[in-house]
Design a protein that fits this description.
DNA-directed RNA polymerase, DNA replication, 29 helices, DNA_primase_DnaG, alpha+beta, four-stranded antiparallel beta sheet, 4 domains, globular, 17 strands, zinc, five-stranded mixed beta sheet, TOPRIM_dom, DNA Primase, Chain A, Dna Topoisomerase Vi A Subunit, Chain: A, domain 2
Length: 632
């Protein structure tokens, strides 16, 4: 329901946050200053002895300097009492003596229906738990005991049993006066197609109640005791209460455990979660029988910003991890990511705990790898990169993955990490004593010193910056000559990018004029250059790759030249600018440096370009000239 403007502000003004938080904490009166509304206490969201939890009555907010929990009075109630937003508002309104606004009739009707269905599922929980103690459940009890679940675990997770009869639960609930339509709407029974009497959905199964963040039982999961059953695990159908793609098993208790510094572990199924919690890993959740959805992933991130995904040690587990990685890439940010715990082959968390105990599981969780490592593993495992074509294909796959990351800053860090992994991988793959192959297949060691032919090349003898710019000019021109359809799209960039080399300048002029074709001899000489011949966008017809490369090369060329021009202007100004003018001039240079670092989306996805040099050059220039000016 919507609330009228000003209602929440009035509510917060009437109920001080310290009075609400004070019910859950003991104030440290040595640090607190009550007269100023300044309160300190040990944090209720994580275990600590010092008072790092701060409450400001005047602003109406709390903040923990340890676990960084923060919020207002309403959020505090939601987090500590496992309430929904409107439920917390209603509690505070009663406390403040305020009347809640009238609810929308349709919304009120839906809320009432949800409450009625939740009451039915709670009755079903009690029925299933009682059935676990009957003779019919002897096999189920033996199975649970064999999995190491004692009375405490059965109580904590409210595990029950559905007898193998068609109308056991139905008869129990209707006999208790529950309306038949509520039993069906709660997903506990189904009507047969022939119009006969409704029958229980769960029969001959161990039952696991599924609760939402507020603790309401919204559905059930059932494990069959019949090895020939069509489905080993069965969940409740979608209902008003239950949306499988928006729910997680054990979500509420896991959120509370994360507040006490437990790492959030995402496992595959019910038994994995139960085993983890019983072993001391209280913050464990699981999706409900399917691959993790985007809604579930966002729900996981609301519980913890960097959960650990515990993958079963088989091909299916690894494929599930790859699917989740692809789902997560566009949603990543500095505040939310994933780590992956790769379990031993053919083992799940329960297997690890049973064979090696909590210590073995803790070691695996502590060794969980960041998402970028799993990405690298997927693109390189079981592959051979013994040709330029295969290495180019790898680079394309990595660039495609990088382009999925929406956050440009994070994308740049991923590109840097992948660049390092790539360099280390190919260094390790190169045989010792790398050199040219001799006839007969033996390695020839490299020469002890540079050859004369090498010393005489432009790259070895000339100015590296000028040569790099010249090579970049040649790549740009070659791509445009190879893909003429892109000329109009990049015409403005080409106009701005004046060519320093005379031949390049002539080709640029011919392309911009659009009249007579460029000199064939000049084109042939350009295309014969070694770095041009091996450039992928010049070699093939992939126009998307050509477009991407042009964006990168123009951005780098123009950014470097703009920064160089700014440096020259700044140097000229140093002699006569007053101190305040110098400060402004250097600020301009610094801003240009920052712009050049953010100049292009593709630039941050480049795997082979070190862009720190330009930033460092400008930083050193600014620092040195400020020092000189101050000295004068």
């Amino acid at each position: 329901m919507s609330l009228p403007p000003g209602f929440l502000d009035e509510l917060r003004n009437r109920v001080s946050i310290s009075s609400v938080v004070g019910r859950k904490v003991t104030w440290d009166m040595r640090k607190s200053n009550q007269t100023k509304g300044d309160f300190w206490a040990p944090c209720p969201f994580h275990q600590e002895k010092s008072a790092s939890f701060h409450v400001d009555d005047r602003k109406g907010f709390y903040y923990c300097f340890g676990c960084h929990a923060k919020g207002d009075t309403i959020k505090f109630l939601c987090e500590t009492e496992n309430m929904g937003f409107m439920e917390a508002v209603e509690v505070l309104a009663r406390e403040a003596g305020m009347t809640m606004p009238a609810r929308d009739p349709k919304a009120a009707q839906k809320a009432d229906r949800l409450s009625e269905l939740a009451a039915v599922t709670e009755q079903a929980v009690r029925y299933f738990r009682l059935q676990l103690n009957t003779n019919a459940a002897a096999t189920a009890r033996d199975y649970l005991a064999g999995r190491g679940l004692g009375a405490q675990a059965l109580e904590r997770f409210e595990i029950g049993f559905a007898p193998d009869t068609r109308h056991g639960l139905w008869a129990h609930l209707t006999g208790a006066g529950v309306a038949p339509d509520k039993i069906i709407d709660a997903g506990l029974a189904a009507r047969p197609d022939d119009g006969g009497a409704p029958y229980d959905r769960f029969r001959g199964r161990i039952i696991f109640p599924i609760r939402d963040m507020r603790g309401r039982c919204i559905a059930f999961g059932g494990r069959s005791m019949d090895p020939n059953a069509r489905a080993k695990y069965l969940n409740s159908p979608e209902t008003m209460l239950f949306d499988k793609g928006r729910s997680l098993y054990n979500a509420g208790p896991a959120r509370a455990a994360v507040g006490k510094d437990h790492p959030l572990i995402v496992a595959e199924g019910y038994m994995d979660v139960i085993a983890l919690v019983e072993a001391g890993f209280g913050a464990a959740v699981a999706p409900l029988g399917t691959a993790i959805t985007e809604d579930q992933l966002r729900m996981i991130w609301r519980i913890s910003p960097e959960p650990v995904i515990a993958l079963d040690g088989d091909e299916a587990g690894l494929r599930a991890g790859y699917r989740l990685m692809d789902l997560a890439l566009p949603l990543l940010s500095s505040e939310q990511s994933l780590r992956f715990c790769l379990l031993p082959e053919k083992m799940d968390p329960d297997d690890v705990l049973r064979s090696g105990g909590a210590g073995a599981m803790r070691k695996l969780i502590d060794g969980a790898v960041p998402l970028v490592r799993l990405l690298w593993q997927r693109e390189t495992e079981a592959q051979v990169f013994d040709s330029p074509e295969r290495r180019d294909a790898l680079d394309k796959r990595l660039r495609a993955a990088l382009m999925k990351i929406a956050d440009p800053g994070l994308r740049a860090h991923y590109a840097e990490e992948l660049k390092s992994l790539r360099a280390a991988f190919f260094r390790a793959a190169t045989p010792p004593g790398r050199g040219a192959w001799r006839a007969g297949g033996k390695w020839q060691p490299p020469p002890a010193s540079a050859l004369a032919a090498t010393r005489n090349t432009l790259l070895a003898s000339g100015d590296s910056t000028a040569i790099a710019e010249k090579m970049r000019e040649e790549i740009i021109l070659a791509i445009l000559l190879r893909h003429r359809d892109l000329l109009r799209e990049f015409e403005s960039d080409l106009e701005r990018a004046e060519m320093r080399d005379m031949r390049n300048s002539a080709l640029r002029h011919a392309l911009l004029e659009g009249g007579a074709p460029p000199d064939p001899e000049q084109v042939s000489a350009l295309m014969a250059l070694g770095h041009v011949r091996i450039a992928p966008p010049v070699q093939n017809d992939d126009i998307d790759l050509a477009r991407l490369c042009l964006r990168e090369e123009f951005a780098k060329l123009l950014a470097r030249r703009g920064a160089a021009a700014e440096l020259r202007d700044a140097v000229e100004d140093l002699a006569h600018l007053p101190d305040e003018g110098l400060t402004w001039r250097l600020k301009q240079a610094a801003e240009l440096r920052n712009r050049s670092e953010r100049s292009n989306l593709s630039d941050s996805a480049d795997l082979g370009e070190d862009r720190a040099a330009l930033s460092g050059q400008l930083s050193r220039f600014i620092e040195s000239q400020v020092w000189i000016k101050q000295k004068k």
